[in-house]
Amino acid sequence: MFELKAQKRDIFGKNVKNLLNQGTIPAEVYGSGKENIHVSILASEFKTIFGQAGESSIINLTIDGKTYPVLVHDVQKDSLGNNFIHIDFYQVRMDKKITTHVPLHFEGEAPAVKEKGGVLVKSVEKLEVEALPADLPSSLTVGLSSLDDLHKSVHIKDISVPSGVRILADPETVVATITEQVQEEVEVKEEVIEGAPVPEAEEVPQETPENTEVPKEKKGS
């Protein structure tokens, strides 16, 4: 499991900007039937742990000497998406199954991409699973070596799942498939040859309408 330290905080509202300026992140720890705990965490430490644990691995969060098993339930970032500005931790019971989303890790290369010019399309990035907190995997591996021909697919039922983990989705759901490359239509334009004679428009003689008298030319008086 991963380890992280936090401190209780009594700074709220607009004043949390002071925490952010000092390199700490305001956070909340909550759980079913548990009282919320307001804490702050060093931004540098959280970035490191979150990069490894993600949202599906248990983190032992130590607050004032007491340890709480938690999952990262939600994170908020600034408008540029570079810095964390708030974290929600969910306190879990180690003896009770929970549901959470686990990311998929696509392993290897699909032979049909290299040998037959196919395109690999990933249709699922995360799967919802149920397990005891200690059994939660940080990711599920999807092997691509079986995709050796166009239109072949990998389904949820093909994914190897650790003991004690159950995927809460249709086993027939496609997570990756090989499609053909789309051929772009080439627009053919007529080539204009410079200096080529341009055909003249044919002059159509005007007909005199029937029963129409053409005035005779008058002689000078």
Features:
ribonucleoprotein, 13 strands, rRNA-binding, elongated, Ribosomal Protein L25, Chain P, four-stranded mixed sheet, disordered C terminus, RNA-binding, Ribosomal_bL25_b-dom, mainly beta, 10% helix
CATH superfamily of the largest domain: Ribosomal Protein L25, Chain P
Helical content, roughly? 10-25%
Distance between the termini: 123 Å
Strand tally, please? 13
CATH architecture of the largest domain: Beta Barrel
- Uncertain residue ranges: 211-221
Topology-level CATH name of the largest domain: Ribosomal Protein L25, Chain P
Largest sheet geometry: 6 strands, mixed, barrel
- Class of the largest domain in CATH? Mainly Beta
Number of helices: 3
The order of strands across the largest sheet is 1-3-2-6-5-4
